[in-house]
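The passage that follows is intended for readers who have already worked through the single-chain material. We present the inputs for a multi-component assembly, then the predicted structure in tokenized form, and finally a short commentary. You are encouraged to pause after the input and sketch how you expect the pieces to fit together before reading on.
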Amino acid sequence: MRCLPVAFAVAAIPLATAAQEASGLRRVAPPGASSCSGCHASRPAAGLAVPWIAGRPAAEIADLMAAFRAGERSGTVMTRIARGFSPEETRAIAEWLEGQR
Amino acid sequence: MRARLQDVLLPSSDPAMPGHFLPQGEKVARAQASRSPTRRALLGGLTAVSLASILPRPAIAQARPKVVVIGGGFGGATAARELKRAGLDVTLVEANATYVACPFSNEVIAGLRPLEGQFFGYDAIRREGIELVQATATRIDAEARRVTLADGAQLSYDRLVLAPGIELRFDALPGYGEDAAEQMPHAWKAGSQTLLLRRQLEAMEDGGTVVISVPPNPYRCPPGPYERASLIAHFLKTRKPRSKLLVLDAKDTFSKQRLFEQGWKELYSNRLEWVGLAGGGQVTAVEPATRTLVTDFARHGAAVANVIPPQRAGRIAEIAGVADRSGWCPIDPVTFESRLRAGIHVIGDSAIAGGMPKSAFSANAQAKVCAAAVVDLLADKEPATPKLINTCYSLVAPGYGISVAGVYRPRNGLLADVEGAGGTSPLEAPRQTRELEAAYAEAWFRTITADVFG
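Having made your guess, compare it with the prediction:
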């Protein structure tokens, strides 16, 4: 029976690895990013008033968010939401969005 | 497919649970134990093959961690899909074959939209490989990590996600109850109640008074009663012009209040009266036979009465032991894991989410954060500190939308508003802004329902 705890230990390492691999199939969403798809469709659809942002260049998204945050660009909810994220957080979200095609 | 060693997990030694997977707590303990250098050294000579060969054959099972999700609404259905896409084995338990969405159901009441527009099925979710079990969960054993269904079947899980929405507290208002709701509909769960209220409004004689009773906080969809009041007022204005609407409220302030009041003054003056708590607005009893609403100060006879009763977390939350004395579920704001039962996560309306309102948007956002945390926890990895967003649109009239938005992060054990962010639509805004927000509301509904069910 001495080897049993060892067997347990070995079995446990791969479990963690398997789940991590599975989650890593898509890049992990940075803080706040997963909420975007509440309004912004992940796939383009006709006649939607809210723009499709998945796959847009990160620099473009980051610039837009900076303009919303500074009040230089008018909007409805985005001016209020952009102020909840630092430039670094915004950049991370923008980079993640670019990869969401 | 042949199970790889990575997919192998030893079953529980508990003879009562043959073949069941180990509860995650034990896996974590073992993963931690495995970090001991002594043990690692001991493993040196063992190859995967030799290790497999020393295990008794029945001990080899699929290692894919199993998550059970209870409740197939905006929160639960989202969580199930996110967990499945992360590679987990997911079972979704939902009692109904079709989901009837609450957002935009106030438009159905006002005759602006068919109820069918609120129906969403589970075909796309099933196609994704999620096991859909149409049943009611009746018991949860948090120790054994096992869910029992109404027919006696059992589902074991490594982690459980509860998204049961709300239960109406029919006992909280003297005179009210499930039978009384046939006379005085709540219409706070969309479906037949929504149509009943609509039929009553259509059938009512012009010149009558419609009364809405609004509960104290917290309840599902904080601005919902006021959007409903707005759209019923719009219905009366266009269809029953001599009728009035009285809103009896158990509180003195409410979501988007100044915006609603501004819109009411502009569109429905002399037609819509709101009475708050201080003015005697709290309904203390109802008399369904005569459609009478009783407050401490007056009795209000109604031609149509919409009674929105106080609420608590969906029933399974109490059964699972994750609801506290408030009737709602305290959670960790990073993982949405219950503060009362390990291994059970609670999202959506049932959860005590601090500053986040009980909305479909919140449930969807929470589901995504919760699912990511569950994946990390199953991998023995610390979940990252999240940020979440909520946006709620309300219609004051067709083509007249207003919104409230917020950004949230964990602080002092709760989800707190990020200061300087969020807030409501501006009070001073051109009509064009209201039109735009009405269009955004419609887009939001199409997008989120496609995200969750499409």
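Commentary: Chain A touches chain B through 49 residues (CB under 8 Å). The mean pLDDT of chain A is 80. How closely did your sketch match?
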